Amino acid sequence: MIDIFYTYDPTTSDDFIRMILSRYYNIPKPVICKSFNGKPFIEGRKIHFNLTHSKQITALAVGKKRVGFDCESLTGKARPAVLNKFTDREKSEILSVADFYAHWTARESYIKFYGETLANLWRKVEFYRGNIYLRGELTDARITQFEMDNYVFSICGDYSKFNLRKV
Ligand SMILES: CC(C)(COP(=O)(O)OP(=O)(O)OC[C@H]1O[C@@H](n2cnc3c(N)ncnc32)[C@H](O)[C@@H]1OP(=O)(O)O)[C@@H](O)C(=O)NCCC(=O)NCCS
Fold this sequence. Notes:
By secondary structure, the chain is an alpha+beta fold. It has helices at residues 13-24, 80-83, 88-92, 97-113, 118-121; strands at 2-7, 32-34, 40-42, 48-54, 57-63, 68-73, 125-128, 131-134, 137-138, 143-148, 151-156, 162-166.
């Protein structure tokens, strides 16, 4: 099970992480460290989390195993410049704006799972029939997706269930 906390209130990423970890995980005054590519973590704690924001929403996934988390608003249009970078078989299953952002967030959640960068991995990753391919090879990455309030979310990680909580 992974917990998803979200808010529409204005906040900064690090403030939101600190608030959730101190309020719900009993980590008083958490000190946020950043990996080389900027993925936040807490030193010495067996807690994994990843934050995403889009338009008004800020959302944080927190669990006991590594996680990558991404969301996008569904109010926008599919971006042709990005769509062109999807592979032919991905394009064949992108039939709507929701499909487009489902693919986008799946790819990004995989990249964020590894704390990688879009610049390094975007062109090497593919999301097809619910699976992630890296350099054309099927990976065992697990992607869980859901829609809420006109946003689409992708969770990359070994989680079968999620729990949503508005804060
Ligand atoms: C993180 C990244 C993969 C996706 O970003 P995005 O889809 O625009 O943004 P999201 O809202 O989903 O996620 C951003 C949050 O993820 C976290 N994060 C930052 N870098 C991360 C990484 N490499 N892996 C996982 N999570 C990361 C942070 O909490 C960040 O919030 P903040 O930027 O407000 O501090 C992308 O920004 C990236 O490639 N970053 C690497 C460093 C870089 O290239 N920076 C220049 C960006 S122009």
